[in-house]
Amino acid sequence: FRSAQSSSRAANEIDQTKSPYYKEAIRKLKEVFQLDDFRQNQLKAINATLDAKDAFVLMPTGGGKSLCYQLPAVCTGGKTKGLTVVVSPLIALMNDQVHHLQAKGIDVVSFNSDQGAEGARVSRARLTGSGKRPDILYVTPERLDKSTDLRSILGRLYKQRELARFVIDEAHCVSTWGRDFRDSYQSLKSLRLEYPGIPIMALTATANEQVMNDVIDQLGICGCEMIMQSFNRPNLFYDVRPKLKNVINDIASFIQLHKGQTGVIYCLSRNKCEEVAKELRDKYKLKAKHYHAQMSPEDKHKTQAAWQSGECEIIVATIAFGMGIDKAVRYVIHHSLPMSMDGYYQETGRAGRDGKDAKCILYYTYADTKILYKLIKDSEKTSEEEKERQLEGVRAVVKYCQNDVDCRRVQVLRYFGQGFDPRECHKACNNCLDEREQKTEDMTTAAKSLLNLVQALGRKERMTKVQCLDVFRGANVKTIRDKGYDSNPYFGAGAKLSREHAERLIDQLLVLDALREECFTNRSGWNNSYVQVGGFRSSLTLSPHSLS
Ligand code: ADP
Ligand code: MG
Ligand code: ZN
């Protein structure tokens, strides 16, 4: 993959602007999508599908995959004409895209479980009636799988040569090797057989080779155009710092060192955004403004304008900010943990879009995971399955933060399935820059004692993480004695470890889901979390260096 990065400039690469589809594509890009240029590989993907070829598109999150199929859908000069059918797994994202496209005047309909009978009836009428057909149909894999009515509508369009292409977004869901495998994606295997000759485009941000091969195999698109790029962003410096009480002070000093440059600070909640922006303004005289989803459209517009004009240099935002704003961002700061590695990659990815050096700082404290876990647990709309997926996402971020040895690039790219030689980082991450000597220690015995300690708790006993640490280290603390925890057979089993070491061990076990923290609200409304034995779903191989 490393060589793939520069391939767009390689001499043997075809000049994509010479294709017969280019003229219409660039015109539609400007007129319909109001964008100036294609990003890396977008035109290549568009040309391939307009030429009726199957395509596999690997692009990082936020790289601009949607345009690869939305733009050809509104082109009329392709080899296949008619409806572009987009299979997309997340209803919220689907609705979002449908609204965006409609705002651009694009004729789009959808089928999903959210829309109700009337919505489905309208979509159906547009696909079967005698009037003008829509350009795009968004559909969930479940609907495509289960609805024989939809299948027969598509069959009819196929016979009338009114099907332009099938698009499989988040295509890694097809593969059982992938981390988001979905049953209903299995039925997509039949597309090639049921609609021969209709080009298929599969898109994903998962670069694991096994997954890619499996997807191509399952969809029956061997020999497709492979459109891939490295996920490495060589001009970004990745830094993870401990989040301490004076975090704002730390952030402010960093910003003062980067006077006149623009940056984004991500916070988890709207209140935090407002609070941080205010403190940076009032206490440090910095040009900061907050931005979040609950602001009025008017306020949002004002803030965006101030940011665009330079009157505001720092935006303190929830993840709602950043869409479609291409400004030369010199730094991205995570005031609290991102929700997932995808999110981290996308949010840091907003820095240095111009190719010049930019910094990404993440402030990490394990305590922030509790806020995230609670957010996930309390969200009413999310299914249990989705919640579990989100929790898994947070654990991956914690693991990344806690690993203060391996090159940050190696870790980020490994998450997406790409290998990376750490020497190529050129000390552009805090771990590669760290010159402290590293020590490897086997923590298996200590880990086992810690698990046994928690397991030995009686049915009515509950221990917080701090109590657990105290018992493990055999601390002489009154509350521990009062509760009788000093009679635990593993009391003091970790007496040789420093508090810091013991805490990292617990955190690692929490990340591995060998231990879990369960949140309870007591009678006075106070939230407490207690350590319990976890699911043991992950194997118990501890990463020795992250404990050293
Ligand atoms: P992905 O699906 O790969 O994660 P999206 O298709 O959602 O990414 O695009 C991410 C963002 O990039 C969107 O805000 C989109 O408007 C923007 N974008 C995509 N292509 C371009 C382009 N050629 N120029 C400017 N912005 C673009
Ligand atoms: Mg996408
Ligand atoms: Zn590095």
Note the topology.
Elements: H1 22-31, H2 42-50, E1 55-58, H3 65-73, E2 83-87, H4 91-103, E3 108-111, H5 116-128, E4 136-139, H6 141-146, H7 148-159, E5 163-168, H8 190-194, E6 200-204, H9 209-219, E7 225-228, E8 236-242, H10 247-257, E9 263-266, H11 270-282, E10 288-291, H12 297-309, E11 314-317, E12 331-334, H13 341-348, E13 358-364, H14 367-378, H15 384-402, H16 408-415, H17 430-433, H18 444-455, H19 465-472, H20 478-482, H21 499-511, E14 515-521, E15 527-533
Parallel strand pairs: 1-6, 1-7, 2-4, 2-5, 3-4, 5-6, 8-13, 9-11, 9-12, 10-11, 12-13
Antiparallel strand pairs: 14-15
Tell me what the structure shows.
The protein has 548 residues and is α/β, with parallel strands linked by helices. It is 39% helix and 14% strand. The chain contains 21 helices and 15 strands. The protein has a seven-stranded parallel β-sheet with strand order 3-4-2-5-6-1-7, with helices on both faces. β10, α12 and β11 form a beta-alpha-beta unit. α2 packs parallel to α3 and α15 packs antiparallel against α21. The longest helix is centred in the last third of the chain and has 19 residues. The radius of gyration is 26 Å and the shape is globular.
